[in-house]
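Hi everyone,

Forwarding the result from last night's run.
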Amino acid sequence: MRFLIPRSPRLALLPLCAAFSPLCPGQIGDALDKPGEVQKSLVPADQIPPAPPLPPQDALKTLKVAPGYRIELAASEPQVQEPVAVAFTPDGRMWVAEMRGYMPDVDGNGEDLPTGRVVVLSDHDGDGFFEDSKVFADDLVMPRAILPVADGVLVGTPPLLEFLRDTDGDGKADKRETVAGDYGVKVDPKRPHLANPERAPNSLLWGHDNWIYSAAYTRKFRFTAGGQWKMEPTSFRGQWGLAQDAYGRLYHCSNSDHIRVDLIPSHYLSRNANYPALSGTNVNAAADQLVWPARVNPGINRGYRPEMLRNGRLKEFTAAGGNWIYDGDLLPDLKGNYFIPEPAGNFVRRSTLSQADGAVVAANAHSSDEFLTSTDERFRPVSVTTGPDGALYIADFYRGILQHRISLTSYLRNQILDRQLDKHLNRGRIYRIVPENPAAAIPRRVTAPAGDEWLARLSHPNHWWREEAQRHLVTQGGTNHIPALRKLATEGSTMGRVHALWTLEGLGNGALDADTLVSALGSVDSVLLSHAVRLSEPFLKDGKDTRIQPLVMKAALGGPPEAMLQAVLSLGELRNPELDLQLAEAVRNHPENKHLPDAFLSGLENREFQILAKLSSLPAWQEDLPASNRMFTQLARGVMGSRQAEHCRKVAELAAEALQGGNAKRAVALLDGLLPVSGSSRRPLELEKEPTGWKALTENPATQAKIIALANVIVWPDKAGVTATLRPEPLTPEQQARFNTGKELYASVCAACHQMNGRGLEGLAPPLLDSEWVLGPSGRPIRIVLHGVRGPIMVLGKVHTGDMPPMGAALDDVKLASLLTYLRREWGHTASPVEPEEVTAVRKATASHTDAWSPEELMKIK
C-alpha cells in the first residue's frame, strides 16, 4: 500500500517498476469519473498514428538522435526478446535478461508462467551486430536484474536473487546458489497484489566500494575472494534503475521523478535516529520534470485528463527508469552525463550534471527537445548502459502494453485494444549510440585482458573497463598484484588511483596500507581525496598511524566541498567530543555547503545535548550569529528526537537563560528545535516538572508564539491548557490481534515506500507518522485504501503531488481494518482503531465509485 506515489502515480510501476508505468500525474483539475462515464481521449482519433509492429530496420528509421551522434541496431528479435537489463563481460558478449512474461494480454494472464530467460549474445564477425544468441538460463518468471560476477552471473527473479554458473562449459547454467530469498515477491495469481512489481528489486550495480546495490531493495551484497556472499542492510532507493558517478554517489529515480542522488551514503544518515529526516540522501537534482516527446501520447493510463498532456504529447515524466551515467571514451562530449529512458513518451533524456554548493544540479542537455526520440509507439526504452567499446547501449522492450493490470484504467484498456497494442509480443531491440563522425575506427571486437593487463585497465578512459578490472581483481583475490596496485594508487591518474585504492580495500587483509592512503589523502583532487577520506575510516578508528587523522581533519576544515562533506561524515564515526567541537566550527564557517550540517548531526546520536551545552558555554558561540543559531536549533531538534525528558527540559531552561541574558534570538532558536517538524513525533513529551524560567518565556513577546506552539508538545503534571490525549484507551484482545496482523501487512505491502518508521520517502511516498489523513475520521483512510487518493494533497504542511493506487480489491474488510488499526496506533498514535464493520459499510456505500478520491472530497467525510 502506498499513501501516495509522488507527482503522478502513476499508480503501478510495474514489473519494471517506474519503467513500465505510463501513468498519470494525478492533478486535481478535472472532475471525477462518474459511474459509467466514458473516459474520452483528448487527442482526436485522426491525429493518432497507427502503431503496427515495425521490422527492426524500419523501427530504426523512426529514431532521431541528437546531432553529432548516430544510432545503430546492435541486436533484435529473434536473437533477443523483450530485454529489460543488459550487461557485458570482458570477452565482449552481451548478457540480457528477457522479461517475456510481462502482461501477455490486457488482463495479465500467464504472468506467473516461467517464460523468462537470460540469453548471451555474441558478435562473431565483428560487424557490430550481435547475430548469435544462446540461452544461458530459462524457465524464469519475469527476470529483471543481471550482473556478471567472477565465474557466474547474479540474476534477480523474484523472490530469488541467484548466482548462476556454468561449470561444465556447455553455455548453460547448471549450478544455482540462492543469495537472497526476499528479492521481491513471486507472482501468485491467487494473491496478485502482493507481487506488485513496483516493489520488485532490480538494477544490480557493483559500487566503487565493492558492495553490490539494487534499486527498490534494502540490502547490499559483497562477494569475497573465497566465493562467499556477505549481506548488509542499506536504504531503499528508487524504483527502476541505479547508476553511480566518479565519486561513487548513487543515482536513482521514481517513475515521475527522474533524477535523485545520494550525495551522502545512506548508512551515515541512518546512524542517528533522533532526526526525522537528515538531508543528503535521496536528493532531487532536477529543476522540473517537463518532457518533450516526438509524437502524441494518448496511450497513457490517464490520457483523458488535460493536465497529463501538452498538445497531445506527454507533459511530464510518468514512467522514468533505467538511468545511467556515461563516463566512457568513445563519446567524450557525453562524459559525466545522466541518461534516463521514458518508455511512455518513447524517448531517452540526456541531462548534464554540475556541482553547486555541495549538491548536484541536473539540466536537460537539449532545451525543449530530447536526446533520442521515436515516432514509433512501440519504442519502449527501459535501460541504458555502457559497453566495453565505449558506446552507449539502450534496451528497447519493444511492445505495446506498458501499464500493468493492477491499475489499468478502462481508458487505457480501450487505447490498447483500439490500436492492437496487446498483439505482437516477444520482440525486442538493443541499440548502440556512437559518434556520427568518429575520430578513429570504432572497436567492434573485444578481447579479454590477461594477467597484468588487468592492472592497466584500472586506468582505462572507459569507466566500463575500470570498473570491470576492479571487480575482476577483487573477486580473483590474488595477492601478487598488491605491490603494483599500491604503486598505481600512489602515482597513477585520478581514476586509476581511485580504483586501485578500492581494489586494495576489496582484497582486504591489510592490502590497503597506511603509506598508500596517506599519499592519496595529500591530494587536492576532489574525487580522489573524497574516496581516500572514506577509505581512512578503519585507520581512524584504529588510531595507530598518527598521520591520518590530521589529514582528514584538514579536509573537513577546508577541503573541496565534496571531500569536506565526506571528512565530516568519516570523523563522526569516532564519536570524539573534542573533534565534534571542531567539526561544529567547520559547519558554521561553511554555510554554502548545504548538506554539511546534517552530515555533522548524523554522527551525534544521543550526544546532541552534550554538544549543545558545551557550545553554549563557549565564548566563540555567544555572539548572535544566524549560523550559530541554526546549529542550536538543529542540536535541540536532535535532543527532542531522543525523547530524553530531562535533556529536553534543560534545553528549555537554556532558552530561558538566553532570554534573560538578552539573546532573544538564541532563545527562539532553541525553542524552535523542540517543535515538531515533518516526520518527527508529535506525541506529547512528559516532563517531571515545569522548566525553570518557563513563565518568563511565556510572557516575553519574542518567545510567546513558540511557547503557545509547544502547548501540547511539552507537558508536565497539572500543566494548564493541555488538550492532547496522552494515553489512549487500550485495545481489546480482538483489536490487538488485528493490530498484529496489520503490522505484518504493513511490512509486506507498505513499508518499502513509506518506510518501517512511517516517515515516508521523499520523492516516492509521504509520511504516515502523525499524518492527518491517517489519524483523522476513519472514513477517510478507509476510502483512500479502498479506491486510492489523487494528489496534489497536503500532508503535514507539505504538498505531495501524486496518487496512491486502490487496494480495495487486494484487502478484504478484516485485513483493511487491521492495517488501518496498526497505522492509527503505531508510532505513538492514539487514534481509534478501525472495525471491520466500518470498512464493510464504507465499501458498500462507495461501491459505484470508479476513481481515486480527491482531497476535497475526503475532507467532506466527518
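The chain has three domains: 42-432, 606-680+685-723, 733-859.

Cheers,
N.
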